[in-house]
Amino acid sequence: MDCRRLRDRRRNVWARIAVARYEHVSSRRVAPTYRNGCPAQTCGGRQSQRGRHRLLPVPRCRLERDRGRIRSWRCSMREGLSRNLKSIFAGEEAAIVTDDWRLAEWLAVRDIPAMTFDEIGAGDIEVPKRALAVPLDWDRVPSRQALRDTWSATSVLWLPLASFSSDLDTAKYSVEMFSEVDVSRSVAMNRRVITRLLMVHEEITMTGPDTALKVRLPDTLHAVGRTRVALLDDEYSTLGNYFEVGMSPTDMAGRIDASMSVSEVVRVDSVLVAKHREMRRESASSFWAAADVAEALRKVCPFQVTIEDNRIVDGFGEWAKAIHTLSGPQYHYALTEVAIGTGALPLGRVEWGLNSVLNEGATGIHIGVGNGLNGVHFDFISTEARLDGI
């Protein structure tokens, strides 16, 4: 995209913001409300001699109340994002950078400054010192080499929506939910979980409705999860590390660590799929098929899976073959992840039907098959299960 086109797009964004703000604050003219193409408030449904409904004005107090609610919601989302980003970037403001103009416009209209990778690449905007990166499509994001060359002094928190879904509505939901998360509380829970894992010498249990999971821990435990909120000046991290503590009995080559053993049963309440940015192209083409399988599985949740010695051996029913093929048939349902969610999200607002990274660590525990590189990663979430002793 050339510089002139970028500038024109930018002007259009701010023009829309100006219109939105005018409509938002203007209360001089009272507009009728409509339902099914007709005025919602008419004079008893009677028509005038000209055949038109005579409109009754919507009470001013109702308009002001509705506008107040919109202002309050926008303000709370903006304040929530600012609070979390300041916690993560040591009290400093951070730029929101995306590859999608629609998302940038949606944020800008809500008084949340946003920019695109294209603008930065064209030289219209300098590379920020601190950034929340929100990609919806990895093909529109600068290469890893380009990021190393031009973003080497930037600390970046990745909200990797492109690994889960490119859907704009899912992206909006994910940003909204991130604004409602208590990041400091989630990291504090990460520390509690890791401390619990380190204090146990042999076996931990995770239990909940129709769930009883036993995990024999290895002598040397490798757990992934942030224990420090703030990023360093040139540090990169992903949002998922803030909202879960994960372990894996399988390495990237598919070799099972015999010193770590996972067995028993788990009730599955939701299913997600994800892919790594570097996923092999022949495997990446199967991601949408995996997304369809996950959507079908979400419709039949809850269901129970059985695990024996780090492999899922039963519970997938008619979808067993598809999951086996899409996650990597060479792994034979081997677990690649056992994790405890610490997201501290408002559970009444979680949309479990969406394939969002925010849902992965929202609550409960989850197990996974497929590593996301040479097979799609499936997450099976048990929302009410907990790590015992926490």
From TrEMBL:
Residues 92-387 form the Crocagin biosynthetic protein CgnE/B domain. This is Crocagin biosynthetic protein CgnE/B domain-containing protein.
